[in-house]
C-alpha cells in the first residue's frame, strides 16, 4: 500500500509541471477496482399482460477502443457512420424469458455471438418481442438490424434484410394487429457518403437582424457548415416501410426523408410521420429544425393529410416553460381508433406575457378533412396528457415561476367544457405529491389509464411516498366521483419497495409487481398480494454484486439544520470495521445543488434509509474501503422565496449547507473537519469549484465535467432563467473562473473529451485550468479520451478512481500545509 501511494504521489508531482506529457492508464487500489467491476444486474422488461418477464443481460463496461469507434456529431445527435445507428448505447448481450411467477429462466436461442441488443418492444398481443441488433462490422459494413423473438418458443430470428436507420433511436414500432412492424430503414441505393473533408466552396455565414431575438442555450454537437448539412442529410434520411412478421416482406410507405418519428394509429389504418427539413440552423439542434407532420395511409403508403408544416423554431423565449409558437406535440389519442391531438401556445410561447390562457388542446379525427376541435383551454403551460376512455382524460399544466402544477380531469366527449381540478399544488412539495396516474397498454398496444370500480370511475396512483421518515412508495385507488382515496399498499420499514406494475386491479386479488431491497439485500422483483402485508413471491433471484465484499455498505441518514433554519439531510457511510472509539476520520463529501422557491419544501427529506447502495462509477462510497467517512447526497438547497431568485444568494447558501454537513459529522465524532474533501459532477463540479473558492472548509476538491465560467452560458443554466445581461452580477459572482486568483485549495479537474451536455463544453475545464495555472494554484487537469458527459469506458473509469484516490491521499488524508484562503 505504501509503495502504491508513493508511486501515485510521484506521478502527480511529475505531471504537475508546466509541460503536458504522455500518461498511461492507471488502476486504483484493488478494493476500488473490484467494486467497480462487480457483475452488472440484468434489466427487466414485463409483458403488458404481466405473464412474462424478459431478463436483459447487461453489457459490461465497454473498452475505450469500443467507445472510440467513428462517431458523427451533427444537429445535436451522435451516431456511428459504420452502423447508421446511435453511438454510446448501453446494450443487452442476451435475453432470458421467464413465465411469472415461478417459471424457469429460458435463454432465447438463435441470437448471434456477441449480440448487441437495444430497443426491446413487446407486440400488443405479447406473443413476440422485437428489438434492434447491432453488428459493428469493420470498415463500413456494420449495421443495425430488426430482429424478433417468438415468446412461446424462445427463439429469435432476423426479420428484415434491409438495415434500420437508427440515427434517432427507436426506429421501429408495432402496428396494433401484432402482425406488422413499421420501421425506418436505410434507403436502397443511397450511394457513398459525402466526403467530410472535401474542399470548402465558401465560408459558413450566419446573420441576424431586424430586431428579432433568437436567444438559445449553449447546445453541443451542432451543424457548422454546408459539408455538415450534407453529411446529416445522408445519414439521417430514411425510408419508412411496413414489415410483415410472417415473412419479413417490406413495403415502402411514402418517400424517403429525415423521419424523426413514425407512429401507427391505434386502429392500424394510418401512420403519423414527423419529418425534419431544410433550412437547417447552425445554432440549434434538430429539435428546433423545421418540421412537417403528415398522415399516411398504412395500407397503400399514400399521403392522406399534411397536418402541419412548421418553420425553424429559432425565436423560442428563454424559460423553463417557454414554448414554440404554432401547433406542437402532435400524437395519437391512445383510446380511440384514429384521432390526432396537439397543443398550441396562446401567449406567443412566452411565460412572462400576461395571459389567462397559456395553451389550448385540439383534436382532429380521421379522415382529417374537417376542422380541429378545441378540446380544452389551459391557464398553465401544457405538461402532459393521459387518455383513458370516451369520458376520461387527465391533463397536466405547470408554471415554473412559482413551481405551481395542476392536474385536471377532462371529459373528451364534451370538448370545451370547463375542466375539473383533480390535483393542485407545488412541483417542489414532495410530501403532498398524490402520485402518478398508472397507465397500462391496451389491446392496440397504446398506453391508457387503468380504470376500475363498478363504472370504471376509479384510477390508480403510484407514488414515491416522500415523508419525514424517507420515501415510502405506495399504490392508491382514487374514486373520481367521490374524490376519495383508498390506499392499497405502502412500503414498510425496514425495506424499500417500489410498485412497478399493477398485474390485477379487480376483485379481491389485487396483485402488484414490485422491486424490493434493503440495506443488506440487493434489489429483486416480487409478485405481491396488495391486500395481505406479508404475502409475496420472489420472481427474480439476482445475486448480491458485493457478496465478496461483505454484501452491503450500511448507511445512516443524518438530519440537521443550516444556519438559516432550513432542514437538511445527508447519507453517512463509515468504513466496515469502524468503531465509535476510533475517533474522527478523513472525510469525502459529495452533493448536487437544487433550486427551490420555498424553504419548507427545500427541507423535505428525499430518498430512503433502507435502499441498497449500488456503486456507480461516480460514487464517493468507494472510499469507505480506504478509511474515509463519506457524506453522500448532501442537501444543498438554493432557495429564493417570493420575488427573489434562488441564485441571488447562491454562494452564501452553498457554503452554509456544506458547513452544516461538516459540523454535524464533527458533532457525531466521525468527521475530522480539518481533513475534508469535496467532489461533484456537472453542476456538482461547479459547486465544488465555488466551495473551494469561497470557503476554507475543504482540503481538496474533485470536479468532474463542470462549467466554471457562466458568461459561456449567457442564456440561462440549470433553473436560472435570466440571461447574462439581465443578471450579470449573479453570473459573475457564481463563476469560479472569475476568482482564479483567490483559490488556494488543490483542485482536480476531470472532463470527458467528447462532452455532449448543454453548457459543459470541455473548454470550460480547459480555460479554468489555464486560469488556475496562470495564478499559481495547485490544480490538475485530466481529459478522458472519447468520453461524453457521463463516463462509461472501463479504462477511463478505473483511471478516474485512481486519480481521485491519489488526490485524496495526498491532500486530504495526509494533507501538506496549504496557504489559507
Fold topology:
Elements: H1 2-15, H2 30-36, E1 43-46, E2 52-58, H3 64-67, E3 72-74, E4 77-80, E5 85-86, E6 92-99, E7 106-107, E8 117-122, E9 128-135, E10 143-150, E11 155-158, E12 172-174, E13 180-185, H4 226-236, E14 238-244, E15 250-264, E16 270-276, E17 291-297, E18 303-310, E19 327-332, E20 339-345, E21 359-365, E22 373-378, E23 381-389, E24 392-399, E25 404-410, E26 420-426, E27 436-437, E28 439-441, E29 447-449, E30 451-452, E31 458-463, E32 474-479, E33 485-490, E34 496-504, E35 511-517, E36 524-529, E37 536-538, E38 555-561, E39 567-573, E40 585-591, E41 594-596, H5 599-602, E42 629-634, E43 637-639, H6 650-667, E44 671-681, H7 683-694, E45 700-704, H8 728-734, E46 747-752, H9 762-774, E47 779-784, H10 794-813
Parallel strand pairs: 40-42, 40-44, 41-43, 44-45, 45-46, 46-47
Antiparallel strand pairs: 1-2, 2-6, 3-4, 4-5, 6-7, 8-9, 9-10, 10-11, 12-13, 13-14, 14-15, 15-16, 16-17, 17-18, 19-20, 20-21, 21-22, 23-24, 24-25, 25-26, 27-31, 28-29, 30-31, 31-32, 32-33, 34-35, 35-36, 36-37, 38-39, 39-42
Helix pairs in contact: 1-10, 6-7
